[in-house]
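User: Before I run my own analysis I want an independent prediction to cross-check against. Here's the chain; please return only the structure tokens and, at the end, one sentence I can use as a sanity check.
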Amino acid sequence: MLSYVIDDDFKLALPRPRLDSAPLFAIIDQERDDIGRFLPWANGLKTEAEEAAFLRSVNDHFGREESMNLVLWYRDEPVGMISFNHFRPSDESGDIGYWLKQAVRGHGLMHRAVKAMCQIGFEEYGVNKVIIRAAVDNAPSNAVAKKAGFHHDGTHRAGEKLADGFHDENEYSLLRSEWLQMNRKV
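Assistant: Structure tokens:
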């Protein structure tokens, strides 16, 4: 498996559709109400075959350098995903999205995954800005962005359409220069 190792227990890996679709779909299916609250695609994903097709499509996008979706592996078990949903060459940016299984939340995994994605984005893909967008009422996602040192750029009124209607959306960003400053070796 092609992976980015964070530590002995935690890594990010390119999806293997045939092998990863069943465990990822099981999480989504079991936690559909929770995941689907802020990620409406979860409510439309009905079968393991659909998840496998999604994973194949994101691998195709990765091959064309349009996006990068990675499976979060914690203690040898898939527990969620994180992605650069889009790379925008016009302004050298990439926006991050993520979801995580309830049982492993609150242990700093997503914070560490976001930091790893920033390193990949800034060092490997040469982006100048990494963006995170989160519904104002999605407190955990907003907390991840803040803890990772992202700047709150503003709030888009009715900026995100979720299953229950439009929600205001916070936008956060981290610039390469800020990331370098935060990660400067002393």
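Sanity check: Residues 48-63 form the longest helix (16 residues).
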